[in-house]
Design brief:
- By secondary structure, the protein is of the alpha+beta class.
- The chain has two domains: 2-199 and 357-415, FAD/NAD(P)-binding domain, CATH 3.50.50.60; 203-355, no CATH class.
- The protein has helices at residues 11-22, 45-49, 63-66, 78-83, 86-95, 115-128, 182-189, 210-213, 250-256, 282-295, 301-304, 314-321, 334-345, 401-415; strands at residues 2-7, 34-37, 58-59, 100-103, 107-110, 132-134, 139-145, 148-154, 159-167, 194-200, 204-206, 218-228, 231-242, 246-248, 270-275, 347-354, 362-367, 385-387.
- Strands 1, 2, 6, 7, 8, 9 and 18 form a seven-stranded mixed β-sheet that branches. A six-stranded antiparallel barrel has the order 11-14-13-12-15-16.
- Helix 1 (11-22) runs parallel beside helix 6 and helix 5 (86-95) crosses helix 6 (115-128).
- The longest helix is centred in the C-terminal third of the chain and has 15 residues, at 401-415.
- It is elongated.
Length: 419
Amino acid sequence: MEDVIVIGGGAAGMLAAIGAARNVNPIGKTNAKVILLEQNEKLGKKLFITGKGRCNLTNACEIEDFFNAVMVNYQFLYSSVYGFTNMDIIALLEENGCSTKVERGNRVFPVSDHSSDVIAALKRALKKERVEIRLKTRVKELLIRGQICEGVLLDDGTKLMASRVIVATGGISYPSTGATGDGYRFAKQCGHRIVQTQPALVPLETVEEYPKQLMGLSLRNVCFTLRQGKKTLYQEQGEMLFTHFGISGPLVLSASSHLPRNQQGTIENLTAEIDLKPALSEKQLDERILRDFNESKNKAFKNVLEGLLPSKLIPVMVELSKIDGSKKVHDITKEERLKLLTLLKHLPLHIKKTRDYNEAIITAGGIDVKEINPGTMESKLVKKVYFAGEVLDLDALTGGYNLQIAWSTGYAAGNCEIS
């Protein structure tokens, strides 16, 4: 019999395996023997594409501030996050040859900007702890007898018995990385309730067509507001991106996590607006426009906008303002100028729906954490089975927080005592 079987070779699974292997058994003679099962041909497939391949591996904020970025069930994370902190994962990676750096917003990346270096460091740690890794190995079901998990049944019919089984299979976002939702199936086998899942940290589709004209344009230092009816769901300043279907980028992804839960597909009465000049009040911006107009009285309207906007955005703003682009600035009326001002401060968008799991960074929803022990990640319904990472009903904003949830809950599941 093996001491521990870990299902899933992603962030949570690798940390669970490292934590379990470091954990000396009660006799105190040997480290726990650990087998890590991964259905893909390599470890860390989703980790590899995280942060566009750069891997924003955690956030260097104060731990007290970390919980403010968690969207649901943040109190559940107290034990695991304090037990294995952001500084702990940084130390683990540094010890295993992956130097890190801190960037804007306390985001932590490998110095090389290569996610492969994070994975390589974790593989070195797994090797150091003598974890047995079995790739291309898929688990069919858990072996449960009398409300105790005794091991796993593999797809090929092989039974592997274990003192403990840790499920760290992730959610269902980015199915191209092998995400199948198996963890939810294992949880249901144990009788767990699954909080309805939905794509999170996901781009948004717009009713308007103009984002297609702006595809690839990134806006920095803008203020993005998302509303449902008159209720403001999200408002923040930062960076966003126009795409062929609508909008994306850090602001939009974070905004998507504030959408109402349990609403698949189209969400009613959802609007957004972009303040292109958040550093200026409407009065200050109007004075700026007047100054530009006075300095270029004989120029065409579209040419004066070059000092205010990225060139790609100018034709769209001309079209939306309904002001003739070739009209001389000295002929522009006060009403037309104020319409331009309104567009610059309140560029409108109507949101049709979120994109699907293929483009969602994470999955919201998952195993109800009320049925999981927050200190050990053990199921309260079936003994000797543990759940960690994205398979749980936990999600956070962008900035490295979701990976920290995976590291912390994974390590907690691995590092608890073996009885």
